[in-house]
Amino acid sequence: MKRFNLWLLCLLLSLCALPAFAQQRPYTDGPVTIVTSVKVVDGQFENYMAFLNQSWRRVMEESKTAGIVSDFHVYGAQAHNPNEPDLYLVVTYPNMATFDGMTEKMEPIMTKVTKMDYKQADEASGKRTVMRNIIGEMMVRELVFK
Fold first, then answer.
1. Phi, psi at residue 129, to the nearest 5°?
2. Would you list the DSSP string of 63-77?
3. CATH at residue 70
4. What's the pLDDT tens digit per position in 70-95?
5. Averaged over 34-52, what is the pLDDT?
6. Residue 108, in any domain of the structure
7. Strand partners for 36
8. Residue 119 is assigned to a structural domain of this protein
């Protein structure tokens, strides 16, 4: 009987300790941002900025209206060497779930804004290599303190 009582006491103590282990994190997952690093070809900065203003910005604005994109920005940077980006395209999305079915969400917007189907848009993207080189992309997620 003493063994049973001891066992029961240990069980109760361990159950009381569970809330200490199950404490919540002091943050929640926030919005997701994609940062695209761009190296603009010498002499093409104004042409590339004109493209961004004409097509990219309009697609982003339409995506924002549709609730796909939360915010977007273009940042200029001073490259310290020839391999570093001199422009950053920064797009923020409400959450990670936004990326589910992204192609199906974005294709109608791209077609509406640019008047191009996906094949034409892909070809146009390839032609922009005379203006810029995409160095890479980075995905970051904000951790929002409670």
1. -65, -15
2. HHHTTS-SEEEEEE-
3. 3.30.70.100
4. 999 999 999 999 899 999 999 999 99
5. 96
6. yes
7. 89, 137
8. yes
Type of residue numbered 44:
Q
Residue 10 lies in a domain: no
The H or E element spanning position 110 is helix 102-114
Tell me if residue 117 falls in helix, strand or coil.
Answer: coil
Residue 116 forms part of a structural domain: yes
Please compute the mean of the pLDDT values over residues 2-27 and round it to a whole number: 65
Secondary structure letter of residue 112 according to DSSP: H
Q: Report how many domains make up the chain.
A: 1
Distance from C-alpha of 49 to C-alpha of 74, rounded to nearest angstrom: 9
- Could you tell me the residue range of the domain that residue 133 belongs to? 27-145
**What's residue 53's pLDDT?**
96
The predicted model gives 11-24 an average pLDDT of 63
pLDDT at 119: 82
β-pair partners for 136:
37
